[in-house]
Amino acid sequence: MQIKIGVIGHPETVKRLMTVIREFPTFRPVVREIGRVEEAPERAVELAGETEVLFVFGPAMHRLVKERVHASVPVVQAPLTGAALYRALFSALKSGRLNGGISVDTLTKRMVMRTLRDLGLEDVRMAIYQGPAWASPEKLVAFHAQQAEAGLSTLAVTGVASVAAELAARGIAAEYLMPSEQDMVVALERALLSTESRRNKEAQIVVGMLAVDDFAGLVMKKSSELEVQKLKLDIHRMVLNYVESLDGYLTQIGEGEYLFFTTRGIFERETGGYKTIYLAKDARATHGITLSLGVGFGASANEAGMHARAALRKAREAGGNACFIIREDQTLIGPLEMSDPVQAVLPPTDAELIRKAEKAGMTSAYLSRLLTHASKSGKCDYKAHELAEVLGVTVRSAHRLLQAWTDNGLVKVVDMEKLSKGRPRQIYRFTFLAGRGGDQTAVRQD
User: Does residue 377 contact residue 433 with C-beta atoms inside 8 Å?
Assistant: First the structure.
């Protein structure tokens, strides 16, 4: 099951986090947007009972929640570092507001000096708030206003959104320090490790099935049996080294096919949170081959093995050079592209959707190819003949499938495109992709 994470923050910051959190398919965010830091404790109380971890922004909000809320779940903050200051100063430079001194809160003097030095702005005057990073908004507003009135600062840089808004209302130029995406990623990883569900699943058995794409064709290209044996040994050594990095166990189950076992915690860390399989890059660069990989999670080794086989089948149906993961609740993660550039992983596809899709005539192969194509190309609009090419069917069949999927609620008509000649084209949208927070994928019918 997915892990619920409670997110509390300013709308602008939360919006940015929602983009980053898509890289963590394990998380299911429950969001509470606030305008002022003082609202955070009340929202934390609301979320503590239904989530496994709370995620807040900045030391002020973190301290306020920790002091006033006796939450039974961990509270993790996205810290503000020098990376946030780079963005704020760059924005100020572009808008021409960095023409005097700056006043800064939340960050330490060392952070500010290092950033100014890196940007070649050592001559810029700076005033650093000397109080605690979790000081009240009123104190921070007073500090920045005093610096501006004294002519010591032409730009206020603050880690509290409500402070930036109040200063702007007073006519004082202000930049809001927003955590960088990298800082958010690190904080989310820390939040994941702190959850009880995650700790319970650390030692869960993971089964992986790996196959070399078109292995028979590779063998046929070799001019001698000696070259074939060398290829097999090289591939086996490469896969063995990868499984060794997982602290796993490997066995060969066929020509160009392997089975391995590891634990969920190790697999998640080595794949960067189910984002990339670096083995595939090595395979392509060293031997010019691509791989298909299916990974299964389960409450037992038998269940994990069944899921791994089903996931490998989906990777092959998608055309190879892909990885799918099927979890214990039968949700589907993927496709993960197996070589650079790695595309963003689509959100988990639940088992109910898979059953509904197959009932509507969207076979597992069709679903796998659609997900893979959407992930790799980022393409949103298709004509019927383009869809036919993706699915490997005729244009007539593509029209028939579109009608069946529309009747079953998987696709809907969203617009009409008028042409100078001929009948208008209907524009279809795959509702199950659009509704999962990814790109809205549409199909144009000729």
Answer: no
pTM: 0.51
- Rg of the chain over Cα atoms, rounded to whole angstroms, equals 26
In this structure, how many other beta carbons lie within 10 angstroms of the beta carbon of residue 214?
A: 14
From 315, 251, 249, 304, select the one nearest 277 (Cα to Cα): 315
| Cα(431)–Cα(442) distance, integer angstroms | 9
CA–CA gap between residue 319 and residue 102 (Å, rounded): 55
- Cα(154)–Cα(98) distance, integer angstroms: 7
409, 408, 445, 442: which is closest to 424 by C-alpha? 445
Handedness of CA 345, 346, 348, 350 (dihedral sign): negative
Residues 224-276 pLDDT 10s: 999 989 989 999 999 998 899 889 999 999 999 999 999 988 888 788 777 77
In this structure, what token pair is assigned to residue 266? 């190790």
Relative orientation angle of helices 11-20 and 181-194, to the nearest 10 degrees: 70
Domains and CATH numbers, the chain: 3-79+181-196 (3.40.50.2300), 82-176 (3.40.50.10660), 202-345 (3.30.70.270), 374-444 (1.10.10)
| Length, in residues, of the chain | 446
Which sign, positive or negative, has the C-alpha torsion 190, 247, 243, 334? negative
Strands (E), 23-136: 27-33, 53-57, 75-78, 102-104, 126-128
Are 344 and 375 spatial neighbours (Cβ–Cβ below 8 Å)?
yes
Which parts of 213-290 are beta strand (E)?
249-254, 257-263
DSSP-derived pairing of the beta strands 174-176 and 155-158: parallel
Tell me how far apart the alpha carbons of residues 255 and 213 are, in angstroms, rounded to a whole number: 11
For the segment 298-353, what is each residue's pLDDT rounded down to a tens digit? 888 899 999 999 999 988 888 888 889 998 888 888 777 565 433 444 555 556 66
* Residue 158 vs residues 100, 169, 357: alpha-carbon distances, Å: 17, 15, 49
Distance from C-alpha of 327 to C-alpha of 296, rounded to nearest angstrom: 6
